[in-house]
Amino acid sequence: MMWRIGIGEKEYWSKGYGADALCVMLDFGFNIRGYNNISLNVYDYNERAIACYEKVGFKKQGVWRECMIRGEKRYDCFHYDFLADEYFALYG
Fold first, then answer.
1. Under 8 Å between Cβ of 29 and 46
2. How far is Cα 50 from Cα 13, in angstroms, rounded to an integer?
3. Which residues have CB under 8 Å from 47's CB, separation 6+?
4. What is the distance between the alpha carbons of residues 21 and 4, in angstroms, rounded to a whole number?
C-alpha cells in the first residue's frame, strides 16, 4: 500500500497538519490493519518531511547513496521505519 502526504498551500506549512495526517495513517496501519512495520523512503533534500517523520517517531534505517540524479545533482534516499511496539509505546 502506498500513501502520500502533501500540504500544497504554503500558508498551511509548519502548522502540524502533515504530522497529524501521518498519525492518522499510522493509527490506521497499526490499529485497523494490524501491521507490525510501516516504512517509507525520502530524498535527502526534503528536510521538512524528514523532520516530520522523525518528530512522529520514525527511525532512520539506511541510506541508498546517490539513488537519484537530477541534472548535475545526486541525491541520497533515506529509508525510515516504525515498528508497532514503538508506536504503541509512544501513542498507546
1. no
2. 14
3. none
4. 10
Mean pLDDT of all residues in 31-44: 97
- pLDDT above 90 coverage of the chain, percent: 88
Task: Provide the grid cell at 47.
Answer: 528536510
Q: Once rounded to an integer, what is the mean pLDDT over residues 83-89?
A: 98
Rounded to a whole number of angstroms, the CA Rg of the chain reads 14
CATH placement of domain 36-92: 3.40.630.30
d(CA 33, CA 12): 30
Please tell me the distance from the alpha carbon of residue 51 to that of residue 65, in angstroms, as a whole number: 20
